[in-house]
Amino acid sequence: MNIGDKIKEQRLKKELTQEQLSDLLNVSRSTVSSWEVGRNYPDLETIVAISNLFGISLDNLLREDTEMAKDLSKKVKWNKYYKRILIVIGILAVIYVGFNGKLRMDEQRYLKNLAAHSWKQDDYKYAGSYALKEADVLYSTYILETGFNPIPLSERHPWVIARKGKLVVEVKEGNKRYVIIAKDNDPSVTYGATVEVDEAGNGIKNDPSWSKEKEESLKAYLKKYQKEYTELLKETVRKRKEVIS
């Protein structure tokens, strides 16, 4: 006997019409009818209500109805699956809100520090750009606006570029130092590249694609202006610290 037959049997024992039973269970009469003819099944909550109403155990109500048991088992599994999805989505939402809040606080701190150290907005180049001129050195930086952005976290922290005549350096997150050698800055340059250097201005990373001739040329250029690069990088690190502190 399937669950539809048992519902009908118990309804008749209680001398209830389909309409009366539907009122007691807060469903439509057609829904009760579809249960009794086996077109569909009650949901889990309604099955519990039927069990309580008729005073029979869930085991007796569901016994022998293998299709109903399979359907109920499937629904229980899907409910657990959806709950897990909702939990994961909730956790991700909390992480996103917290992370975004941290980025917004950082952004406001950077902007406050820029104003305190007399940096000026430089939007004629691009939005979020700031510049500071001191003696013969021009410093520039960029503050990334908070919000959805594909730029990696490591690139979200402000960098500072310093230009002194034909010499250009950059300081990034972790005080990583770079020397930018380019024909646009110095027409006498044979090979252009961005070279990571240490505090003393010595190259510490070489691109495997560089030819031996290019590598030697870049080393010679760094050596020629090593003192100037060292001083400029030292000051640029200080400027970046002022921005992010």
From TrEMBL:
Gene3D superfamilies: lambda repressor-like DNA-binding domains. It comes from Enterococcus caccae ATCC BAA-1240. PROSITE patterns: HTH_CROC1. One of its GO terms (molecular function) is DNA binding. Signal peptide: none annotated. The chain crosses the membrane at residues 81-99. Residues 7-61 form the HTH cro/C1-type domain. CDD domains: HTH_XRE. Keywords: Coiled coil, DNA-binding, Membrane, Transmembrane, Transmembrane helix. Pfam families: HTH_3. This is HTH cro/C1-type domain-containing protein. InterPro entries: Cro/C1-type_HTH, Lambda_DNA-bd_dom_sf. Residues 215-242 form a coiled coil.
